[in-house]
Structure to design on (108 residues):
């Protein structure tokens, strides 16, 4: 994911918002997932690392107001996605539908 977000030879602004949503999903899967056997040293280390990643993600990107609106504007300007995709992603990611609609109207 780091390589996807830090490229310099081609534009990525239109996929930044989708990458943020994907990162949140991956961190959530690791944080709440039961794939690892419990009480092993490896699972303890991975759970601690995931907790740290989740706290950092929430610090910078967790709240709807913390997300840079330009990433949403770039998503809307991409002809593959437009407003329909932005509205779908916002409603799926944020439980409060009023906040999602408000953010979509701010971008509009």
């Amino acid at each position: 994911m780091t390589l996807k977000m830090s490229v310099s030879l081609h534009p990525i602004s239109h996929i930044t918002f989708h990458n943020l949503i994907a990162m949140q999903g991956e961190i959530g899967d690791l944080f709440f997932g039961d794939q690892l056997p419990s009480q092993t040293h490896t699972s303890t280390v991975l759970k601690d690392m995931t907790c740290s990643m989740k706290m950092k993600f929430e610090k910078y990107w967790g709240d709807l107001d913390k997300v840079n609106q330009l990433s949403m504007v770039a998503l809307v300007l991409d002809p593959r996605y437009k407003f329909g995709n932005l509205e779908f992603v916002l409603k799926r990611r944020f439980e409060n539908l009023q906040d999602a609609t408000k953010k979509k109207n701010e971008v509009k």
In short: The radius of gyration is 16 Å. The chain has one domain: 13-107. The chain has a mean pLDDT of 76.
